[in-house]
Amino acid sequence: MKAHYIVNIEKPEHHHVKVTIKLKKGENKIKLFMPSWSPGSYLLREYARHIRWFEASQQNGEILYHEQVSKGVWEIDWSKSDLITPQDDFQVSYEIYCKELTVRTSHVDASHAFLHGPSYLMGVVGENLDKPTIEFKFPALWSKLSTGLKDISEKRDSFLYEAADYDELIDSPVEIGCHETDGFELLGIPHHLAHYGELYPHKQNLKADIKSVVATVARHFDNDLPYDQYLFLTHFVPKLYGGLEHLNSTALQFDGRKLGNRKDYLNYLSLVAHEYFHLWNVKRIRPSELGPFDYLSEGYTKMLWLAEGLTSFMDDLFVYRAGISTLEEYLDVVKGNLDNFLSIPGRHYHSLEQSSYNAWVKLYRPDENSKNSSVSYYLKGGLVFTALHSLLIKKGRSVDELIKLLWKDYKSRPEKGIDRDGVYELVRSLGGEEVLNAFSNMIETTEDIDFEAVFKDMGCELKWHESSAPWLGADWEFAADRALIKSVVLDSPAHKAGLNAQDEIIFLNGYRFMKEDADKLQSLVMIDQPYELIISRLGKLERIEITPGKSPRQLKEITIVDRSLAEKSFGFPVAPEQSRIAQK
Questions:
Q1: Partners of 535 in the beta sheet?
Q2: Which of 11, 77, 173, 436 has the fewest CB within 10 Å, making it most exposed?
Q3: For residue range 217-245, what is the model confidence (pLDDT) as tens digits?
Q4: If 0-12 CB within 10 Å is exposed, 13-18 middle and 19+ buried, where does residue 111 land?
């Protein structure tokens, strides 16, 4: 089926986008749908809730009978339409509200328009759109449009694009406005940079470093680039962070005020590497359940440990291998991830497979008990691939070789994804049965992983900090000067005492308890001494006795014991002239 989309933004300050889709009649009934979710972001977001009105008509203006038949589906019925002059050409139009600036939603205001395909473009139920075209109309004061879609405009003042099908159409975010643009070539292929938002002054060379990251990732695939052009689209907006992968582009969000801080800057480049690596791992190498997509219902898979875990292992590693960060800086990031993982009680309750399968109701819907009941497949997944890398190194192999095998497997049958057994077979081919058994155990069970051995085999040692400070096991949030419990750690003193999230602490041993007391609590209480709390719970005062315990040990650092082994384990050969390690 042929389809032509017209996207019209007349008054961006009102945040509305009008979309018109021109189609040709086939059957007497046709259904159009607005996706409920976005590939790569596993939560039903119900984008149809932002539609203000919907209409259907023939090309001559006669109205076609239509009705909404489910939460995101509209049906047009010619048999119920009172037509004077029936025609095959028809169109649907709708207006949608766009005012949520994330990488998985659309945002339109007086300064720009960011259009995320699934959140504003309808599709046709049961129909494969053949090379749909899309035309954008927007205020003349806006001078630029950036997207990964194929430009087929005949004139410089028009913005007409083409996609292979509906999947590609909505997998191509669009930025419109007066944003900054730049770019570079790698292997003769253009890579576009589009930046919206403000940056604090900094001395970083974003273009050079992004190019270094891209070149490093590409080398892991023997420079086999599966695209004709690529777009890095970044929103530099305070307090925002995130990214979403697309077929030949990525949308990123980062606090532009932080680029001058080295640690934050390396974090931004890690985000760039993460989403760019997804170009291969997820958009092409993918769990078999992730495509073709049912955009109205959940797409369950137990393999997000491959999609996001492998990517989370590689992203910071790419920045190190690009010669931008030092080995110590890389290991410091890994230390933070490992320390975070070990502080999550939920790791004992959810395996990686369970965490993946429940992404739809857990990861994107965190609450005060999330850390007690589950674990992130990003976090644990990345650490599991670190452990697999260590196991393979002992066999003279590496995760780098696994990546090449995954890519080879994909190219042999690009129309199909890979299942768990397929990944396991590739791991077995590299490391044998012993490595596979250890890897599958980390994927399928909640058993503890011996990270001491993992890093020892890569020339490193874990150093711990034993604290003598008192600990309650509760996080705080504040309403003005009032101190409330935000969350409680499983099996902590707070948990054993019966404290709940949203409890307000009124008195501690008879004295009024305020925000400043919560900030210095460790200096007010002692380990193994009981204290009386008076709390307000649902408006009712209650007495609770609590006995602080000793703070759990924390991972202080991952030290390099054998530098030669560590560099060999984590490194990727880089010519000396390519190294751009900054002075610390």
A1: 505, 542
A2: 11
A3: 999 999 999 999 999 999 999 999 999 99
A4: middle
Alpha helix segments (H runs only) across 164-205: 166-170
Examine the domain organization and report whether 314 and 220 are in the same domain. Answer: no
CATH number at residue 70: 2.60.40.3650
Instruction: State yes or no: pLDDT of 534 exceeds 60.
Output: yes
- The predicted-structure confidence for 27-84, as pLDDT tens digits, reads as follows 999 999 999 999 999 999 999 999 999 999 999 999 999 999 999 999 999 999 999 9
**Residue 238 domain-assigned?**
yes
- Collapsing DSSP to helix, strand or coil, 47 comes out as helix
Which residue matches tokens 């950036």? 146
Query: What is the value of pTM for the model shown?
Result: 0.95
Measured CA to CA, the distance from residue 391 to residue 393 in angstroms comes to 5
Asked if residue 574 and residue 435 are part of one domain, the reply reads yes
Q: Which of 96, 92, 67 is CA-nearest to residue 79? A: 67
**In 445-562, which ranges are continuous DSSP H helix?**
451-456, 493-497, 515-519
Same domain, 337 and 452: yes
Question: CB 526: neighbour CB atoms within 10 A?
Answer: 12
Single-letter amino acid, residue 567: E
Cβ–Cβ < 8 Å for 565, 458? yes
Query: Do 80 and 103 reside in the same domain of the chain?
Result: yes
* Cα–Cα distances in angstroms (integers) from residue 188 to residues 223, 229, 507, in the given order: 11, 10, 68
472-487: pLDDT as tens digits: 999 999 999 999 999 9
Same domain, 164 and 218: no
Packed helices 399-412 and 420-444: angle between N→C axes, nearest 10 degrees: 140
Task: Please check whether residues 192 and 83 belong to one and the same domain.
Answer: no
* 344 within domain boundaries: yes
Q: What is the rounded CA–CA span in Å between residue 365 and residue 436?
A: 33
Domain of 212 in residue numbering reads as 179-279
Helix, strand or coil, per DSSP, at residue 112: strand
Distance CA 50, CA 35 (A): 12
The CATH number of whichever domain residue 395 belongs to comes to: 1.10.390.10
